[in-house]
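Posting this for the archive.
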Amino acid sequence: MILLMAISQVWAAGPDAESLQYYPDVRQVRADVESTYRDGRPGEVDGRIAGQYLLLAEVLEGSWGGELGAIGFERRAPAEAKRLRTQYLKAYASAQESLPELQPECSGLTLAEQAAKRICVRANFMEVRSSQESDIAQVRQVAERYFPPQYRDAFVAHSFAAKLGEERSAQEAQRQQNNARLEYQREEAMFRRIAAGILLAVLSVPLAILALLMGRARRSWGRNTGSFNRIASVEDMHLFDIVGQVVDVQRHAKTHVTTTTTGGGYVHQDSWHAQPVSTTTTIRSTDHLALFVRTDEGRELRESFVDLGIGVRTGNRVRIVYAGDRWSRSGVAVAVANLDTGDVAIERGQAGRIASPYCLLRAAFWGVMVAMAGTFVDMMTGVFVFTLPGLGLGAVAAVALALAWQASLRAGINGQTAHYAAALPARPR
């Protein structure tokens, strides 16, 4: 650590003390500038002299001051360096004080406008003084005029122009890095837009198919095709009944057995504990009823029901309720009313045969629309953030809407059927 500190101190010290003998006197600086730039613009000679005074003082301070600046210079610089710096700063201050007042013809103009006129002394003075300090080419000219080759690079390196060049180089590198980052971000955003656009095009295919199927289903509504049509709304439901006498009743039960096996049937090596196989058996029975009914018109009907929950025997007068669509005016048997006993029963499972799958198409359509909405946002913004959540939300929305709409339709069908069937026993036989 001490060695590194010593090396840094030597580097900060810059030129050795031998370089001080080449620093010019203030009178020499003035004489050299006046002889070289005697034909310059008004104020240019004084500005260049002042600029070189300030340049020499800054290089001295930077050579021995390092990162600490003036404080480091006062601690490290030899007496000759301090004397020269003081001399340059006093000469610079004197040149600043001797600067004339602003000329009337230059009053009210900006610095750029004054420099363009080329007659404004103060503007020329300030422009040349600044360039003498910040222009690396002019700094190198001063170094070549007064210093031998072994000290010129060190002189330039400790000047303000070199530090300004380093800052500009760093800024340019940062600017290029920022531009590269922006270009990468633009390319990445474009790639995301293209990916989202492709996915949007892919999603438009099932959307178009669903739209065509829904349109076809709508066009089929209202047509009397002569056969039963499923309904998509309770408003399209048609209920009617047929009265007659039961001539035969056939009833039987079906037993459904489901066996589930759990456990491994193994013995633990250490404890010799046996784990037997566990078997669960579920038994479910369904009641199947077939009614043979002769109507008052002399026709004989056969209707089957599952788990109807009503007592019927041969000879009973019954009304069989049918539910269908209002266009074909045909339907399926959904309820039975025993006119002799006054009992009414509804087979609620029949609602599934009446309800149209149109709500499933509509739910899928809106699910795809939700997925496409997220994809469209990503395509416009190029972030690819909403596509995957949109796909997931679309799937959830499709399933939820399908279940909700189908359950609502079936409940409506059963409700209308129950309301219609409840009034049947009171009607004339």
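Residues 152 and 353 are 100 Å apart (CA to CA). The first strand starts at residue 237 and ends at 262.
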